[in-house]
Specification:
- It is built from two helices and three strands.
- By secondary structure, the chain is of the alpha+beta class.
- β2 and β3 form a beta hairpin.
- The chain is globular.
């Protein structure tokens, strides 16, 4: 059976969200488990780094919040993909 091609988002947020790489995990923001998440940041301390993973819905909410903040400062939001830490790998 042939898979149909995935729909390419045409709106700006849809394109931004689709650009992230997702894997199954737990969202740090809404605590949903076994959902598609992407690395969205980290908490760094003297003991090391803890990556933060966010689900698609929360990524969209965070992007909207950031977009509104950027509009108030009259600047454009810049999106980057954070590097992945393989499961079980310790931060340096």
């Amino acid at each position: 059976m042939t898979r149909s091609p995935e729909r390419v988002p045409t709106d700006r947020f849809g394109a931004l969200i689709a650009a992230y790489e997702y894997e199954m995990g737990t969202c740090f923001r809404c605590c949903l488990r076994r959902v598609q998440v992407t690395r969205s940041g980290e908490i760094t301390s003297n003991e090391g780094e803890t990556p933060l993973y966010t689900c698609r819905e929360c990524v969209q909410k965070l992007l909207a919040m950031s977009e509104r903040a950027m509009e108030r400062m009259n600047t454009r939001l810049r999106i980057i993909q954070l590097p992945r830490t393989p499961p079980g790998a310790e931060a340096n």
